[in-house]
Specification:
There is one protein chain. It contains 34 helices and 30 strands. The protein has 980 residues and is α/β, with parallel strands linked by helices. The strands form six sheets. The protein has a seven-stranded parallel beta sheet.
């Protein structure tokens, strides 16, 4: 009969050592390699394979390292941990190092039996990481078994990539373009939401009645909803699409046992009913709770996180109530945006075209007014389409003039508004930005009818021909101005994104700029003609073509298909608004793509190009854009302009222009009245906007995150760093290890702490480990690998954090080489060392000890049995027989002790042999310390999981004995060197 191995015990099989995991049974052992990750877990049948009990081998006294050996081995071991014993099961295994402030939502979530959270931190703070942390932790703890992310189809691939690369969660895309393929692989009667445990679902695809019912029936027990503000309905005429999304979410939220994370930077769009409906999805009581009372605010505080950059730029400082700044964390958000408004004037030919087009549009609107409301609304949207495309570009104007208006298909005036508004206005409440960058049509039924006798169709064709003839900088002075400002940005070292309203404009601009901005400037365009995945591919293609040459520059021409959700801060640092949006929220969304965490520049430059004499841009800029900037500057946050007020102002501007086109000879008679109408609506808009800003300020003060005190976060951050290490330890390890292994390091100018490394001269084993991560060509040809202090790095760069794949590969190589005395090449870390130093006055021995813990974690779905590891440094003076054990601070200090000189190798080996022979005498102390660690871990699990007695009841943590002594290092005082 095969022997029984308890979880946590060591065995030898298949030529290596393994840790037995709790999933093992009498006839099968589930094993994880000693020091390995969950990806390496294997099953072994003792009846068919040889399995023996194992003890961790003692260090060899002949294999001595230098003063840095202990620190490198400890860091390599800690970096390699993927199954930490602390209360946060997921942190050891994710490929992102969360900021301390991003732990707040996680702490809040773990205090709830069923997690219901509204994550509403400002743009660029990292809501995706916060949601991913909670999801990964719930899955790791067994509190959730399956995950669904509901998001825009344009962001689905980005969510998939973030979950896979940062959190190790593989999720299947469920989109209109993938569902047929997925359904072909189903068994009879099987739902794809049962077959695939983790899915990323297009909200627009799944909201339809046909798919909604199946999803609700088989919905996972954990759901994340991105851009949740687009999925709630206000009580005053919300769009049909929002109503469908809201109905879907309401049915999902009806299951009180389902975890639900709502993610949005704009939870309050100015409509209180929509905000209340959003809160009601989180917790029904919140939809009617009196949030002016302490009870209401406390209830909301358990589920709601909303912070602006100023709240977290510096965190865990004395200003947060801590006693010192030992754990202070500074997050390098760009400090501000530098705004510059640049003007251009129309050429004589362009002005003549615009005036003729305005006159024509005015005639059409006037004629349609007498034909009924439907015809009037169709003519109105056609007029706006014509005006907006004309001020955008000649190509957009020509296409609009040759295209039938979408509103023509309407049967009623109301339907005409639904069809015409999305393509011609920039509502912040648009259901999605997909498909809204096409050039709108201006042709109405009158132009397309051969029975009108007005020659309207011929007139449109003539205007279109004139527009097409204006392409190029000679007559399109807007394009000429763009080139001037782009060259200035490029000369200053910036790589800008140029945002256009319409696809024809973006394509026209990109075509002209090709080859006009210098040999080392790469220009690409991204529009709605590309799929979301193709857009990301085009951006990576642009970055790749520009390469690492400091003189290379990138220019991206894009439509608003990139203004939401896509992160562009790694490749771009300036925004140029080629076309003004008619809602300033859209400008903020564009700028937010580069002004976010991970942006290397302290200041993002923003240029707004506007026509001073086209009758539209100047007023939109003054009334909407500048006001929005001022509020953002005053409050530190953006406050959305109410859509109906914004459109009221732009409608008044259009009406004024059309009146001018209709009665130019009477301009003086109506000019004052028309301008007064604009001023009145602008004043009302400003009043409402200021009120919204005051409400937002009051709201953020009332609902400030107070459910988790910074002291609680600091305690957990200290515990995490104590177990897994901090950023400074990782950086020191990477630098010293690479230098010891033959890497060539060079500092990066202008980026303190960043450096590049040529790894072509390192041992073959390390090069083989790095090749799959950074590419074989980079490794073998000696191309520099950038290492950066920030965890937000671009593809091809390495972050100086423990979970970065490059850092992990380096740590694995150092650890394996230390454990294998026969390994070829340099071995920076060793398991033994004898160091003569001025840091001690008596002989002191430092032990690097690995403990294994058996944890029982209760959850809603039953108890989880886990095995986790921890590494500790323990130090004593004297011999192991009569050891005087030192405090932890003293043990940690020895890692940084400098050697005062060379230690005689023979004396070192004799000293090490004597210490190792006596080490069994320290066994009792090591076991007592292990029991103390187990008690501390139990308390930390209880502290974090205070949600309910149900979750705490049954928690158990026991230490596996004996502990593994990975390293032993003897520090001799200078006077003792040479003594026997």
């Amino acid at each position: 009969m095969s022997p029984v191995y308890s979880p946590g015990s060591l065995v030898t099989a298949r030529g290596r050592e393994w840790v037995v995991l709790p999933d093992s049974a009498d006839d099968i052992l589930v094993l994880r390699p000693l020091g390995g990750a969950d990806d390496d877990i294997a099953a072994v049948f003792p009846s068919f394979e040889t399995v023996r009990s194992a003890e961790f081998a003692a260090p060899s006294p002949a294999d001595l390292g230098d003063a840095k050996a202990a620190g490198l081995l400890r860091s390599a071991l800690r970096i390699g941990f993927r199954s930490g014993a602390g209360p946060f099961r997921s942190l050891a295994g994710i490929a992102v190092e969360p900021r301390a402030y991003q732990l707040v939502p996680l702490l809040m979530a773990l205090r709830q039996r069923t997690v219901r959270m509204l994550l509403s931190d400002d743009v660029g703070i990292g809501k995706t990481v916060e949601a991913g942390l909670i999801a990964k932790e719930l899955l790791a703890q067994g509190e959730a078994k399956r995950l669904a992310v509901l998001c825009s189809p344009a962001l689905a691939e980005q969510w998939q990539d973030e979950l896979r690369t940062k959190f190790g969660i593989d999720a299947e895309l469920v989109l209109s373009s993938t569902v047929s393929r997925l359904e072909r692989g189903l068994d009879l009667g099987q739902s794809l939401f049962d077959k695939y445990p983790n899915v990323i679902v297009s909200t627009d695809f799944i909201k339809s009645t046909r798919h909604r019912d199946d999803f609700v029936r088989h919905c996972p027990d954990l759901v994340i909803v991105d851009e949740a503000h687009t999925c709630v309905a206000a009580d005053d005429g919300t769009s049909t699409q929002n109503q469908l999304r809201y109905e879907l979410l309401r049915r999902i939220a009806d299951d009180a046992e389902r975890h639900l994370l709502l993610v949005t930077a704009t939870p309050h769009s100015g409509k209180e009913s929509a905000f209340r409906n959003l809160l009601g999805l989180v917790k029904p009581e919140l939809s009617t709770a009196n949030l002016d009372t302490d009870r209401g605010r406390k209830l909301l505080a358990q589920h709601f996180v909303q912070r602006k950059r100023a709240d977290v730029r510096e965190y865990l400082t004395r200003e947060d109530g801590l006693t010192d700044d030992r754990l202070a964390e500074k997050t390098a958000f760009p400090s501000d945006r530098f705004f510059k408004d640049e003007t251009y004037k129309l050429s004589k030919e362009y002005r003549a075209l615009l005036e003729d087009a305005i006159a024509y549009a005015s005639e059409r609107v006037t004629a349609a007014d007498s034909q009924g409301r439907r015809e009037a609304r169709i003519a109105w949207w056609s007029a706006i389409a014509l005006l907006r495309s004309l001020v955008s570009s000649p190509r957009a104007a020509a296409q609009t003039l040759r295209t039938r208006s979408a509103a023509v298909a309407a049967a009623t005036a109301e339907e005409a508004d639904k069809l015409g508004a999305p393509l011609t206005q920039d509502s912040s409440e648009s259901d999605a930005l997909e498909g809204l960058d096409v050039a709108p049509g201006a042709e109405t039924e009158a132009e397309s009818s051969s029975q009108t006798g007005t020659g309207a169709g011929a007139r449109l064709a003539e205007l279109a021909e004139r527009a097409a003839a204006l392409e190029g900088p000679a007559t399109d002075l807007k394009l000429k101005s763009l080139v001037t400002h782009l060259k200035a940005l490029l000369a200053d070292g910036y790589s800008p994104i140029v945002f256009c309203r319409y696809i024809p404009t973006a394509e026209y601009v990109a075509e002209y700029l090709e080859g006009k901005l210098g040999k080392k400037t790469v220009v690409k365009s991204v529009t709605g003609t590309l799929s979301p995945q193709q857009r990301l591919g085009r951006i990576e293609e642009l970055a790749s073509e520009a390469g690492d040459d400091p003189a290379a520059r990138r220019v991206l021409i894009a439509t608003d298909c990139l203004s939401e959700g896509v992160n562009l801060q790694h490749h771009f640092d300036a925004v140029l608004h080629y076309d003004l949006a008619w809602n300033p929220t859209r400008h903020d969304q564009r700028e937010g793509r580069v002004d976010r965490y991970g942006q290397k520049r302290d200041q993002v430059r923003v240029i707004t190009l506007y026509g001073s004499d086209n009758g539209i841009d100047g007023k939109v800029l003054d009334v909407l854009i500048k006001k929005h900037r001022q509020i953002r500057k005053d409050l530190g946050i953006s406050v959305s302009v109410p859509d109906e007020m914004s459109s009221g102002v732009t409608d008044a501007i259009v009406e004024w222009l059309l009146l001018r086109g209709q009665q130019p000879e009477q301009e003086g008679l109506f000019e004052l009245d028309a301008l007064e109408t604009i001023d009145t609506k602008a004043s009302q808009l400003e009043k409402d906007w200021n009120s919204a800003a005051e409400r937002e300020t009051t709201s953020r003060s009332r609902f400030a995150q107070r459910s988790i005190h910074p002291e609680e976060v600091a305690r957990e951050v200290a515990a995490i760093r104590d177990t897994l290490g901090d950023a400074s330890e990782v950086e020191d390890f990477v630098r010293h290890a690479l230098e010891a292994l033959g890497g060539l390091l060079r500092p990066v100018g202008g980026s303190p702490g960043d450096f590049t490394a040529d790894v072509s001269g390192t041992p073959a084993g390390l090069r083989d480990a790095l090749a799959p991560v950074i590419g074989g060509e980079i490794v073998e040809l000696g191309k520099p690998v950038p290492f950066r202090r920030t965890s937000a790095v671009a593809r091809g760069e390495a972050a100086l954090v423990r979970t970065d794949p490059v850092v992990s590969a380096l740590a694995g190589h150092v650890l394996n080489a230390a454990l294998d005395t026969k390994a070829h090449g340099p071995r920076p870390a060793r398991r033994c060392g004898v160091i003569t130093t001025e840091a001690v006055e008596d002989r002191t021995t430092l032990l690097l000890v690995r403990y294994r813990f058996h944890l029982t974690l209760p959850s809603r779905t039953g108890d989880q049995e886990l095995v986790a590891e921890d590494a500790r440094l323990l130090a004593f003076q004297g011999s192991p027989t009569n050891a005087v054990w030192l405090p932890q601070d003293s043990a940690l200090a020895l890692v940084g002790a400098e050697a005062a000189g060379n230690t005689d190798p023979h004396h070192g080996e004799r000293t090490m042999t004597r210490i190792l022979r006596q080490l069994p005498e320290a066994k009792a102390h090591l076991e007592r310390y292990g029991d103390e660690l187990a008690a501390e871990l139990l308390e930390s699990h209880r502290r974090v999981r205070t949600a309910s007695n149900e979750i705490i009841r049954g928690l158990r943590v026991t230490v596996q004995k004996p502990a593994d002594i990975l390293g032993a290092y003897v520090y001799l005082p200078v006077s003792a060197e040479g003594a026997v």
